[in-house]
Amino acid sequence: MFDIKLIRNNPELVRAAMEKRNAPVDLDTILAVDAKRRSAVYEMEQLRARQNQASETIARKKKNREDADDVIEEMKQIKEQSATLEIVVRQAEEDLQEILLSLPNLPDETVPFGKNEEDNQVIRHWGEPPAFDFEVKDHVDIAEKLGIVDFSRAAKIAGARFTLSLGYGAQIERALINFMLDAHTKLHGYTEALPPLLVNTPSVQGTGQLPKFSADLFKVDNTDYWLIPTAEVPVTNIHRDEILREEDLPKYYVAYTPCFRSEAGSYGKDTRGMIRVHQFNKVELVKFTTPETSWDELEKLTANAEYILQQLGLAYRVVNLCGGDLGFSSAKTYDLEVWVPAQNTYREISSCSNFTDFQARRANIRFRRDKKPEFVHTLNGSGLAVGRTVVAILENYQQEDGSVVIPEALRPYMGGLTQIPARP
RNA sequence: GGAGGGUUAGCAUAAUUGGUAAUGCACCGGUCUUGAAAACCGGCGGCUUCGGCCUUGAGGGUUCGAGUCCCUCACCCUCCGCCA
Fold first, then answer.
1. What is the homologous superfamily of the domain A117-420 according to CATH?
2. Which chain B nucleotides are covered by protein, judged by CB under 7 A?
3. Which of A43, A54, A80, A136 is surrounded by the fewest CB atoms within 10 Å?
4. ipTM above 0.85?
């Protein structure tokens, strides 16, 4: 959430930032609502001050057994005035809050200008896309031939955009989850978390999915529960409304969870296969840091996610998202895009972001070093999206006979299996 | 689902019949010291137009005035029931 003071003191900076995001805002309206709120608050505080004084007078008089009826009468009148003023103040505060919650984060200076994903900036490449001397198949064909993913039965059980993994398909997901969790806990210093998959409204508001993006989420009927779209939500909210100690920062968490997304508005995109589904597994990295270190921590977090792709021998590139493509809460995002042979292109498999103090402000996550508590910075990134990793492995490691070689790093997690054998 | 107890600042604990939140620890700053500790002084939730205002889990109500009384809700603890 935005600091209203920043808008008040430096509107040009905010205006420029929102333009960079391709999401211009009407700052004059915001400033007008703010001014209205401030004057109403001031007026009410004046009244309160008189109320408090009168109240003290009454208490004193009563103690001395003096008559206080005249002061009590005055208080009754003040009370009526403040009741109407209170409504004005409350309305103004709600108006301002609504606007502030709808504003996206300020993009960092290093975020490139641009409208959409075509303007994203490729930072670096790793690995070579494999060369095939046969016609490559896409992951759907490969998986169905191997009998490891059953899309039609998934549709029967749940509906379109669900998967049913079976046999080696289920096993490779479990192996990937364990491999990723082990790497991040044992090598990169993250604490493993297994959080709730249902969360309440304040949690979803804290990370920025609400109030604007409720259409992307699943809500449980007749409750205040939302299905998490990413582990970012429950894990970032671990420290909601807390004041951390400076010496406890940075805090690193890694969590495996299923993720649930309604994918409203994505009709016609990636309808086939397991690239875009309503439920998928993901291993998520989350950090809480001091403001000075968050940019370094973003580089390190991104490297931690890249490590997984490197170990799996999957070619990828790192992309710096442009202003127009940046997520609502993010100040800067690196997407890791893995090579997908059947599409002859790179597809997102991880998104690593620095949210600066945007989420911390919403979720009230602070730390103390001198006397005043300060907002922490929060970061997160997929490390990695498991379903899409399976897609990448199936397509990049496919063999002409229909079998799929298991990347070496994963074999210990597959009971030493070296390939998923082709079926006759 | 039922019964009872609880929620006060970073933590821990107070607050006569309703009179406007006290104290300890931790932490920060200062005095003192060669340095530190101790002691002492100040600070130690948010906002502020620097006059003040707000803050006792959340939201209502009664009252001139609510931590305190009433109602609704959330969460935590104990027990019963049900349950993987």
1. Bira Bifunctional Protein; Domain 2 (3.30.930.10)
2. 10, 19-20, 27-28, 43-49, 51-54, 64-65
3. A80
4. no
